[in-house]
């Protein structure tokens, strides 16, 4: 038997792969069946954020139509109902995942906490003998040590879904993707949003892509290089005190969202090597320091991305099955979901050339032309070989574009191979056009 701890993307996919190969697999999910499997992605992260982002984009679009006289009235979202309906869809998806997992031959055990001590695996308090085990217990929100952090009205991405009234003013503590996505959502719903970033806001983002993000978040008060001194209030949250540019400042807020990242959820694991943040240390086969024990997904540390967790689960499962497989982190596409999908993969190498242009008008951006925010297409390539080294794609299909380009970059595709590319039209993908243009420039340079 193989025991898998955690029913999120990493554990579930690993379980299915193992069971499909004929192994007896027990998947242990500490949450009850009423919540179901699916992990952080389904219950607290990707999926519910998608739900709220869809609604936020509808709100933004209808306001533009209203201002241009194309509709007569503006709809008002019932925030509590929106949160309730999000939960209904989550439950349906969780049921589908449960059926799919069981039909693959996996035995799913709900409501029991798994634990690992060296090579010994426990389900609840019962030790079990197993051929191998996979730890896929995910991550949890990072909660900074801030005075007042336990006040009612302070939320994490795990507790936010209990909110039933739209805050008039919300402070978001954090400066990365999570903070940006929630800032966009609440600002489009009509909340007054302040973001308090400890250092730079979206500081690791390509400068052109960051400029798009800042434009799409133009209604948000973004404060960088801040130190949060405390959350104000007695019985309820009333605001946040912070320091910036050497001065003490305060803002009022009836809700505070802690969006300060994630930490590996590895407290139930002992006798196995971990990093300073609790991440279980693994090699590129997802093997831990203890033979027969594997770890994958968020519990093994950054980048905390669902597709990476899934792939790590496949790598762990294949190595248990005796199929040597290694995890490659070199070309991982990522996206930030604001008004557009702000996606990116790779980066510029030494001596590389870059080309950037506004995204083309197409489905989802036609009515953005008048506002100059049709997105962005940017490409990095090696002038000598034409090899594509990185891309940025902001638009309605930016994430899809980045995913396919990441796959092609892994195979060292060059811009010259796009000369025979025929696109679908209309499309909001500008990368293929940049590739053709870069190919023409590089060939002219080489022939001169």
TrEMBL record:
PROSITE patterns recorded: PYRIDINE_REDOX_1
Question: What is the protein named?
Answer: FAD-dependent pyridine nucleotide-disulphide oxidoreductase
What InterPro entries does the record tag this protein with? Class-I_Pyr_Nuc-Dis_Oxidored, FAD/NAD-bd_sf, FAD/NAD-binding_dom, FAD/NAD-linked_Rdtase_dimer_sf, Pyr_nuc-diS_OxRdtase, Pyr_OxRdtase_I_AS
Q: Which residue windows are coiled coil?
A: none
The GO annotation for biological process reads:
2-oxoglutarate metabolic process
The membrane spanning regions, by residue number, are: none
Q: Which organism is it from?
A: Methanoregula boonei (strain DSM 21154 / JCM 14090 / 6A8)
Molecular function (Gene Ontology), one example: dihydrolipoyl dehydrogenase (NADH) activity
Q: Which range is the signal sequence, renumbered to this chain? A: none
> Which cofactor(s) are needed, names only?
FAD
Family, as annotated: Belongs to the class-I pyridine nucleotide-disulfide oxidoreductase family.
| Residues of the FAD/NAD(P)-binding domain | 2-313
- Keyword Flavoprotein applies: yes
Keyword line: Disulfide bond, FAD, Flavoprotein, Oxidoreductase, Redox-active center
- Superkingdom field: Archaea
